[in-house]
Amino acid sequence: MLIFDKLQKDRNSLHSCLLVNKKWCKIIIPILWKKHAWNLQLTIESVKKLSNILLSFLPSSSKKLLSDHGIELPSTILLYKFPLLFNYISFCNFPRQINVNNIIHMVLGENNNYQSKSNLLEQEIYKLFVSECKSTRILIWMTCQPITLFPGASICFLQLYKLCVYVDIVNSNALHEMARICKNLNKLYIDSVSDCPNNNWGGVISLIDAQKHLKVLEIIVKVDKKIGKEVSKALKRTGNTIERFWLNSVEISTFQFLTSLINIKELTINNWEDYKTEEIMEFRKYLAISEFPKLQYLRIIGPVSCLKEISLFIEKTGGNVSTVIIITDKALENTGMLIKAIADNCPKITCLNTYIEPKDFIHIKSLLLNCRHLKLLRLINSSKKSDVNVNDNLGDELLDILASFSPKSLSDIIISSFWKYSSEAHDRFLTKRYHTQLTFMQ
User: Fold this and answer.
1) Distances from the Cα of 347 to the Cαs of 11, 289, 317, 335, in angstroms?
2) What top-level branch of life does the organism fall under (predicted)?
3) How far is residue 92's CA from residue 80's CA, in Å, rounded to a whole number?
4) Are 352 and 378 a contacting pair, CB within 8 Å?
5) Distance between CA atoms of residues 33 and 29, nearest Å
6) What are 368-399's pLDDT values in tens digits?
7) 188 — phi, psi (to 5°)?
8) DSSP string, 270-299
9) Is residue 20 included in any domain, yes or no?
10) Residue 230 lies inside a defined structural domain of this protein
């Protein structure tokens, strides 16, 4: 068994092994179908063979229903003699929408009534998998088919570990039913196809509330204020188990949930929308009073200028922060305060992307001396004033500090080309730090 586990990614070797004897065949067939059935690099011919095998498992009631609606299944499926040696479908991972679409296209081709027929065929394919897949662990839910309302759903999705929901596509009732069935998700991703998905959020809230051990939550889609308020309330109720959180919009009316993320290790706030003053103040308020003792990864992307608040809660972390990434298109204040907070409280940091002014160069020395595990350092000019570089060779001080105090681990340095550097300072840096990649960024 250990040998077969090592060969899980080696499809050709597994094929060879299954021919050795019946015992090996029984062991390897489930591995092959689980790991390689949905390989998207299959040839057209292989897709046809795979589809034929899977469609052959359709119950007679489904085949009759399809036939009554003018959907003729490939005649080749009649060549398979039942019962087959294995229930291949039970070994497969639950199909993605693209896998189901491939089967549908193989059956219907360029049929004139493609849309209406494809909906029915899609329904019967999903019913088949829901009834046969007994322990689905990962689901990319991107269909309007009410898959949790099909027979067998309570068993199929009971042990779901990772779920990605396209909130503007899924069936609302089915989403609520998923919340009833599935209570032990580890990872939940909320995404959408459209730009303004405001449907089905009641089901999403129920799904978040139902989880007992949710560790990863990513809300990749934008939400409006009304929905955001409800999302925030749900996060406040359940946020104490979350370790990784990604929010793609801070326009959610209240940020009280931040104080509930007591076990957070990775936090990403990512949005480029402009916010009203009250929203920014609300965000800053709860950011400043939140405590993240286990925080390791912080990324804030967008026009929210809150370096002071970030500095305050970095001072309350437990010294485990390894990555800090700040990206914005706004002029920033308190850049030195943030660098100082990191220097004093983040001895394990390996990656830092932040902003700086010439008056902050003095803090870089402390950063380099205290943070001896740094691997990547990216320092961007924080001022938008056009006259910042009036003073010739303003960057020499920064280059000399980097050359003299950088730890051996620091292999990549990216600094703003906004300041002027003398050739002498550049040569001094290259002499001392010849093994470090230095990049000047516009």
Assistant:
1) 45, 22, 11, 19
2) Eukaryota
3) 19
4) yes
5) 6
6) 999 999 999 999 987 655 444 445 677 889 99
7) -135, 125
8) E------HHHHHHHHHHHHH---TT--EEE
9) yes
10) no
